[in-house]
Design brief:
five-stranded parallel sheet, Helicase, Ruva Protein, domain 3, Rossmann fold, alpha/beta
């Protein structure tokens, strides 16, 4: 087992005390970083996260209490110990009641300080990622050096210890399923199945059967009993991706399952007990969807016991070089290429890009560059071409809607063999409106009639 040193950030405007603390804590085996004011401490916390902060109470500018309040507001799991003169002990006691881990009056005994540090670090969830043990493998797939992501991983580790439902927010391509899997792997259900389903990718008519299963003869084509994903995930975790796209009728049934811990397969009169943890994800604003009655409020609160928001790639640009080189390493092996890295101009281009597709888009760009590269370094020209090729492939919203409409109409006409009445009913449109849609896309229903 290889153990990294645990990092402590010490904040004090007394340079002599700062040096003394640094010497004592370094000798005790800790990695120590020192700053002389609270403002500098906040800057360091933006760059990297320690496992503990020790701060003086009285300092010029922002004092130790104000520093603690900022840390507690942005990173509530990060423990803080306050050093205080005798005259400010009442303030320190009040601070402890508000969430400060502990306080020590100056002059303090080194053994007492080290004992309090050890106690704080034992409850700090942030220490696990610093230790390369099998227990840390839960987060191995999440490549980051972002302070915001480390905070999120700390929360994820705390959440993983229980069975509370988790709702993950984030743009497409940020890695919501990867995060859900990490929570599963960090918890007590890690040895049971992790099952994922994209609620937006399965037609409404099939989603109920996919989730809850069906019995033989429940509908045309149901030639045998079929286990749903709830049963397949028994004892483990069911990840409901794009939950915001779930139809309202199924939302009602999902709510009942969460309340009763039972499912009823389609066509069955019997219920089946299930023990499944639910993690869901969405790129939608579910509060807005609730306000417009597109999402049930009671289900929202059932799913949103704990809420985690994954930052977009543009909000964690410090991760772009790390991710790009990680993808480069795996993709050069996949394509058996001898590529050593990115030219400086190429990396600058990657770091400054807007990344609307987030991490997934970055991986795609790197893959295109690896496939086309003929030199040991990926050039800026390759990166530029790959990025602009993606921009050209992204059509306007109107064009995308036209394509979807036409593809949908073709599918419906194929299903109904060109019967406009049935097609209109299936698409929940009246015949007149459906004919107008066919005319708009220059489709002739007769073409789809069986000969």
């Amino acid at each position: 087992m290889i153990e990294s040193k645990l990092k402590i950030l010490v904040v004090d405007d007394d340079a002599d005390l700062l040096e003394l603390l640094s010497i004592r804590l370094t000798a005790a085996g800790y990695e120590v970083e020192t700053v002389q004011n609270a403002e500098a401490a906040l800057n360091r916390l933006d760059v990297s996260r320690p496992q503990l902060v020790i701060t003086d109470m009285q300092m010029g500018g922002m004092d130790g209490m104000a520093l603690f309040e900022h840390i507690h507001r942005t990173t509530p799991t990060l423990p803080v110990i306050i050093l205080t003169a005798h005259g400010t002990i009442p303030d320190a006691v009040a601070a402890a009641q508000r969430g400060v881990f502990g306080y020590l009056a100056k002059p303090f005994d080194s053994k007492t300080l080290l004992a309090q540090i050890a106690q704080a670090l034992r409850i700090s969830p942030g220490i696990t990622p610093q230790i390369e043990t099998p227990q840390a493998l839960w987060r191995a797939g999440i490549i980051t050096q972002s302070a915001a992501m480390e905070d999120l991983l700390t929360k994820a580790q705390l959440v993983a210890e229980g069975d509370a439902s988790v709702l993950i927010h984030g743009e497409s391509g940020t890695g919501k399923e990867l995060f859900a899997h990490a929570i599963h792997d960090a918890g007590k259900r890690a040895n049971r199945p992790f099952v994922a389903v994209n609620c937006a990718a399965i037609p409404e008519q099939l989603l109920e059967s996919e989730l809850f299963g069906h019995v033989k003869g429940a509908f045309t084509g149901a030639v045998r009993d079929h286990k749903g994903l709830f049963q397949i995930a028994e004892g483990g975790t069911l990840f409901l991706d794009e939950i915001g796209d779930m139809p309202l009728l199924l939302q009602v049934k999902l709510l009942r399952v969460l309340q009763e811990k039972q499912i009823r397969p389609v066509g069955s009169a019997q219920t089946v007990e299930v023990d499944v943890r639910i993690i869901s994800a969405t790129h939608r604003d579910l509060r807005a969807e609730v306000a417009t009655s597109n999402f049930r409020e009671d289900l929202y609160y059932r799913l949103n016991v704990v809420s985690l928001t994954i930052p977009s790639l543009s909000e964690r640009r410090e991760d772009i070089p790390l991710l790009a080189n990680h993808f480069l390493g795996s993709l050069t092996k996949k394509y058996e290429k001898n590529i050593n890295g990115f030219a400086p101009e190429a990396m600058e281009m990657l770091v400054s890009a807007s990344w609307p597709g987030n991490v997934r888009q970055l991986m795609n760009i790197v893959e295109q560059c690896v496939v086309l590269s003929t030199t040991p370094l990926i050039s800026a020209v390759l990166v530029y071409d790959a990025m602009h090729k993606e921009e050209e492939q992204l059509v306007s919203f109107e064009e995308a809607r036209k394509r979807f409409e036409r593809e949908y109409l073709v599918r419906v006409l194929k299903i109904t063999s060109g019967n406009v009445t049935q097609a209109a009913r299936l698409s929940k449109r009246n015949r007149t409106e459906f004919y107008k849609l066919l005319q708009r896309h220059q489709l002739d229903a007769a073409t789809f009639k069986l000969s």
